[in-house]
């Protein structure tokens, strides 16, 4: 199962706010032009990021402002804030045949591996901060 694009849109949005926010008003229209999506997508993203305490959003065209330090925001925090995966990363097919030797044992042999894979992804995301990405981005600008 793919992680939805809400995750990468949210990372892009936060980077734009933190990197460009000193020079430009971070409205949904402005951010949408950077991400190249409809401003409605950005407004939903901003709402999720605000709920997570990462940004503040001023009503009307006031724009988005950073609230949290970039060292205190991890990719995992963003991943959780935008709810880009329903449940776990892996959707298990429903109702394997309990009369089949594979079907009745598939969960026993596969579940722990899938859980370990999800945990590895989440641990990787926990190790990367927005500050890390900003450093990499500044090297490219």
Task: Explain this structure.
- With 141 residues, this protein is mainly α.
- Helices cover 53% and strands 6% of the residues.
- The chain is built from six helices and two strands, in the order αααββααα.
- The protein has helices at 6-20, 28-35, 39-51, 75-81, 106-126, 130-140; strands spanning 55-58, 63-66.
- A two-stranded antiparallel ribbon has the order 1-2.
- The model has no long low-confidence stretch (mean pLDDT 92).
Please outline the helices and strands.
Blueprint: H1 6-20, H2 28-35, H3 39-51, E1 55-58, E2 63-66, H4 75-81, H5 106-126, H6 130-140
Antiparallel strand pairs: 1-2
Helix pairs in contact: 1-2, 1-3, 2-3, 4-5
Radius of gyration: 19 Å
Oligomeric state: single chain
What top-tier CATH class of the domain at 6-86 and 129-140 fits best? Answer: Mainly Alpha
* Overall 3D shape: elongated
Helix content: 40-55%
CATH third-tier fold name of the domain at 6-86 and 129-140: Arc Repressor Mutant, subunit A
Descriptive labels:
mainly alpha; 6 helices; Arc Repressor Mutant, subunit A; 141 residues; two-stranded antiparallel sheet; 2 strands
How would you briefly describe this protein structure?
The chain has 141 residues and is mainly alpha-helical. The protein is 53% helix and 6% strand.
